[in-house]
């Protein structure tokens, strides 16, 4: 049987784009659409909600208005500007892309998906979004929202998060993208997935393209194929609060590790059956501290990262600092434990630690 999509692709795009222009949310990156602002917004929105990103976007692009400014920025500057948005690897990746953009393209954001894909950290979705939204190239931009909407619309039960699933959707979606309105079409699919065709509920009565949608006649929840969730793991972490007058000792997370460049209290995850005393003696000894005496717990918090649920306990520790400090070890003012230069976990316990002025 002939697909209704193949009979009236123009009607579908007209209905979808018309709905978008009348129903879209007022978001800061849409008010002044430029290639750089598009790039920044797409990176910010990866695994972070619109409500979290929207208030932060303009401040970021004011501080870094183009690839040149971000390419020249220090670690401390970019981490402070990104604080609170999470998944900090994204800002390093964005800066790497900006540096490559400056070196290879003179700071001008490439106009095609093929050229954008040459930039580090720019994958199929981000390149497709920039190329279509900013330059009008008729290419697909398949994120979670688009993958879900397209899977239901086309009746393709695949996992859009996999390369194979994305290619299956892309091959059928690209012919539907109007050459004169590619950006609006793609952004409309994104918006439809955010507002109407949601993961847990498809409001088909409000959908502007329900007459073309395969899933409307069945169960939309049957699409797309969902990947089994990885079970979360509970872990325990211990940290040392080593006061030194009005200062406290911290360590800087090294390059190549998650949250590289941020500071945190010395410590680590515990092995099964391991005591806090043994772990902290070892950590502080490796940092050059001597006469280490691990005391009582002075703060606790719950922290979640990816698939780990972390129970954090902070112990007050008396110790003799190393004669020469350097490398990852730093002595900072206590007040900085609540600053943007430390990890979210550290800021969580800071409100308890800052009360302790002994």
Question: What does this protein look like?
Answer:
This protein is an alpha+beta fold and 358 residues long. The protein folds into 2 domains: 4-222, Hypothetical protein, domain 2 (Endonuclease III, domain 1, Orthogonal Bundle), CATH 1.10.340; 233-353, Nucleoside Triphosphate Pyrophosphohydrolase. Helix content is 42%, strand content 16%. The strands form 2 sheets. Strands 5-1-7-6 form a 4-stranded mixed sheet, with helices on both faces. Helix 2 packs across helix 13 and helix 11 (144-154) crosses helix 12.
Give a quick precis of the structure.
The chain has about 350 residues and is of the alpha+beta class. The protein has two domains: about 5-220, Endonuclease III, domain 1; about 235-355, Alpha-Beta Complex (Nucleoside Triphosphate Pyrophosphohydrolase), CATH 3.90.79.10.
Distance, first to last CA:
79 Å
Give the proportion of residues in helices.
Answer: 40-55%
Q: Assign the CATH topology of the largest domain.
A: Endonuclease III, domain 1
Domains, number: 2
Mean pLDDT: 91
Low-confidence stretches: none
Which radius of gyration do the C-alpha atoms yield? 25 Å
Tell the overall outline: elongated
- Can you tell me the CATH class of the largest domain? Mainly Alpha
Tell me the major beta sheet: 4 strands, mixed
Count all strands and give the number. Answer: 8
Order of helices and strands: HHHHHHHHHHHHHEEEEEHEEEH
CATH superfamily of the largest domain: Hypothetical protein, domain 2
Strand % is 15-25%
Give the assembly state of these chains.
single chain
């Amino acid at each position: 049987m002939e697909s209704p999509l193949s009979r009236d692709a123009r009607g579908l795009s007209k209905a979808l784009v018309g709905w978008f222009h009348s129903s879209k949310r007022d978001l800061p990156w849409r008010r002044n659409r430029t290639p750089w602002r598009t790039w920044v917004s797409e990176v910010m929105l990866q695994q972070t909600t619109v409500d979290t990103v929207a208030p932060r976007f303009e401040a970021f692009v004011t501080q870094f208005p183009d690839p040149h400014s971000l390419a020249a920025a220090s670690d401390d500057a970019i981490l402070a500007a990104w604080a609170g948005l999470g998944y900090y690897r994204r800002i390093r990746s964005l800066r790497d892309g900006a540096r490559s953009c400056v070196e290879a393209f003179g700071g001008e954001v490439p106009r095609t998906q093929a050229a954008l894909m040459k930039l580090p950290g720019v994958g199929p979705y981000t390149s497709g979004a920039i190329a279509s939204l900013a330059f009008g190239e008729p290419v697909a931009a398949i994120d979670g929202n688009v993958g879900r909407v397209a899977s239901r619309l086309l009746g393709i039960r695949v996992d859009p998060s996999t390369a194979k699933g994305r290619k299956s959707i892309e091959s059928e979606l690209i012919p539907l993208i109007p050459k004169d309105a590619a950006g609006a079409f793609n952004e409309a699919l994104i918006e439809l997935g955010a507002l109407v065709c949601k993961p847990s509920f498809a409001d088909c009565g409000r959908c502007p393209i329900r007459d073309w949608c395969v899933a409307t006649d069945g169960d939309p929840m049957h699409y797309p194929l969902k990947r089994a969730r990885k079970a979360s793991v509970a872990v325990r972490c211990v940290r040392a609060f080593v006061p030194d007058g009005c200062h406290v000792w911290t360590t800087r997370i090294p390059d190549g590790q998650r949250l590289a460049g941020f500071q945190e209290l010395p410590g680590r995850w515990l092995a099964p059956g391991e005591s806090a005393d043994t772990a902290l003696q070892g950590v502080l000894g490796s940092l050059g501290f001597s006469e280490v005496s691990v005391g009582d717990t002075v703060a606790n918090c719950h922290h979640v990262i990816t698939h780990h649920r972390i129970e954090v306990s902070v112990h007050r520790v008396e110790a003799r600092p190393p004669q020469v400090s350097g490398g990852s070890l730093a002595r900072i003012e206590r007040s900085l434990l609540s600053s943007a230069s430390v990890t979210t976990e550290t800021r969580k316990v800071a409100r308890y630690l800052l009360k302790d002025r002994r």
